[in-house]
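Before drawing any conclusions, I needed to go through one protein's amino acid sequence and its backbone structure tokens, quoted below without any editing.
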Amino acid sequence: MALFNFKREPTAPTTSPAVEAFLQNYSIEVMPRTAEKVENFRDLLPQHTRVYIAHIEGTPIEEMVSTAKRLKSQGFDVMPHFPARIIADRATLTDWIARYQAEADVKQALLLGGGVNTPAGDYDSSMQLMESGAFDGFTHLHIAGHPEGNRDIDRDGGDRVVMEALKWKQAFSERTDAKMALATQFCFESGPVIKWADRLATEGIDLPIHIGVAGPAKLQTLIKFAIACGVGPSLRVLQKRAMDVTKLLLPYEPTEFVSDLAAHKAKHPNFGIQSVHFFPLGGIKTNATWAIENGGKSATPASHS
């Protein structure tokens, strides 16, 4: 009797239609020092992907503008951060905007309070930046969202102050021509995120939500960043994984988190989460590869919120 060896051909990973739809128009975040390590972003990201440029305290504006110029020249939509508490005064703010516009034709901005405790000058909140009038003529203004609360603002662990601020920003969105959206901190558990998004809807806040997703990374790296960034109860997802010796050394991937939200969005088309915003904590190339393998594509210029 002859014995036959049948070689199993490798199969390409199947992409869920719901996940593929959910990843449409995803954005990603870089810093000047991480962007320097990427030879050509066109090799990693679909054209017109929105790229946020994080402005960490101490980063010279020249490096921020240079990064924006490079990304813009390679065909990407650029959205630099403007953290209120690191901006000295209105002259500094208008100078930054003028540089971005002259060098990279920037018309999109993420407005933040900023991660420092003591303001460097005149600004303490994103609302003050919005009221300043300095961003008149911008096509897109995004603001921060906190699905798990923000203890720097609501020190009692609630969300009263944050919710009042969001209602103010909702009203602002109705009197500005700029498209506005919420870009959130990264999370690891879908249930609380769904409840938070639904809560905003019941409060009359209908700004599109771009949910923060931590890209693939070593578990130890994610836990370090999650603690430093004040990630809330969903940190338990990582802590539980760390207790499983079979998973301890395996890199974390956001597959389950994204799949759960995508499935919910497919069942509830009016659900407030519009798209995904990646934090490439394990590296831009690693994150971009994961997005491509899961069907992530980008949009035409300025068509997405």
Q: What stands out?
A: Confidence is low (pLDDT under 50) at residues 1-12. The first strand starts at residue 27 and ends at 30.
